[in-house]
Specification:
By secondary structure, the protein is an all-alpha fold. 84% of the residues lie in helices and 0% in strands.
Length: 146
C-alpha cells in the first residue's frame, strides 16, 4: 500500500512541477514520497524518485545539487540494478544539467560520454528518444554513429 501511495505522491509532485509550483513539487517529493519509498525499501524506486527530485532542483536553478544527486544517489543504483530504460533518462538529464552549469567546455567529455551511452542503450531498447540523443551529440559536434 505504501508503494502505491508513494507513486501517487510522485504523480502529484509531477503535476505541481508542470504547473510551475516547484516549491510544492520539491516538498512533496522530498518530505512525502521519499520517506514512503525508504520505508518500502525498493532501491530502484528510490533512485527514480531521487532523479525526479534532481530535476526539480535543476529547474529551481540548484544545478550543482541536482548534478550531485544524479551522480551519487541515482546513477549508482540504476547501474547496479542494470535498469537500462531509467539509465537512458538519468544519463541524458545529467548531461543536460552539466551543459547548464558554468563550465560546459570542461564538462564536455563527460557530457559526450553520457549522451553516447544513453544513445547506445536507447537504440538497443528501440525507444524514440534515441533520435533526440543523437541530435544532442550532433549539436556538440560529435558523430552519434562513431
Amino acid at each position: 500500500m505504501k508503494a502505491f501511495l508513494a507513486v501517487a505522491k510522485g504523480h502529484v509532485a509531477d503535476i505541481h512541477k508542470q504547473r510551475g509550483d516547484l516549491g510544492e513539487a520539491l516538498r512533496i517529493c522530498k518530505d512525502e514520497q521519499l520517506p514512503l519509498l525508504e520505508e518500502v525499501g525498493d532501491p530502484l524506486e528510490i533512485a527514480q524518485a531521487k532523479g525526479q527530485l534532481a530535476l526539480i532542483l535543476g529547474a529551481q536553478g540548484h544545478i550543482e545539487d541536482a548534478i550531485e544527486l544524479f551522480r551519487h544517489e541515482c546513477l549508482p543504483i540504476l547501474e547496479h540494478r542494470d535498469d537500462r530504460l531509467s539509465l537512458v533518462f538519468a544519463r541524458a538529464n545529467l548531461a543536460g544539467l552539466l551543459k547548464r552549469r558554468d563550465s560546459p567546455d570542461q564538462d564536455e567529455p563527460e557530457i559526450v560520454r553520457l549522451y553516447s551511452t544513453a544513445l547506445r542503450d536507447a537504440r538497443t531498447l528501440g525507444i524514440p528518444e534515441a533520435e533526440m540523443l543523437a541530435d544532442a551529440l550532433r549539436r556538440l559536434g560529435h558523430d552519434p554513429d562513431a
